[in-house]
Amino acid sequence: MKYLSILxxxxxxxxxxxxxxxxxxxxxxxxxxxxxxxxxxxxxxxxYEGSICQTESIPAKxxxxxxxxxEFPLADTSGVTWxxxxxxxxxxxIFFGTELIYxxxxxxEDAEAxxxxxxxxxxxxxxxxxxxxxxxxxxxDFDEGMEAPSDWMKGSNFIPYRPGDGxxxxxxxxxxxGFVFDIFYEYQFN
Length: 190
Ligand SMILES: [Ca+2]
Ligand SMILES: [Ca+2]
Prior knowledge:
Structural class: mainly beta
Strand content: 35-45%
Number of domains: 2
CATH class of the largest domain: Mainly Beta
Helix content: 10-25%
CATH topology of the largest domain: Immunoglobulin-like
Order of helices and strands: HHEEEEEEEEEEEEE
CATH superfamily of the largest domain: C2 domain
Number of helices: 2
Bound molecules: calcium ion
């Protein structure tokens, strides 16, 4: 019987949690999932809502602070290297749909397999404001003069916000065929 009544309390809590008015009607949360209990009410951590802070808030904005290229393809799909007699000169571009939103202003000359390459994005220049829509990171080998335009090496489409992941500051994306990168986020909720 004791188990049953505890279970019913939980059910009551969860069923009634959708409406904060119910809390004022006498239900006192016994535990806040992502927050602190203050005077009988949950004060939620940033990014959570609901009467026991059980629901992730959808971020208003995800700011990209850095992309770290961990692996890049050594050659194109027909096996031809990006430059004739040196490694590729890496830089990244970011798209929202078909719209180019960021080109990294510098490149890493003659990149070598096994090294990682940090593309730091300063001043919150890249904001993902449509966190449930598709963005793309494209990796290029910078070419100029006779060699221009730059070689597109590989790209990856992804949806920034992953519900239930708890707002990781670093997400690793494996685009296949040797393109792996980390993307670093800061979250804003209003
Ligand atoms: Ca090239
Ligand atoms: Ca090169």
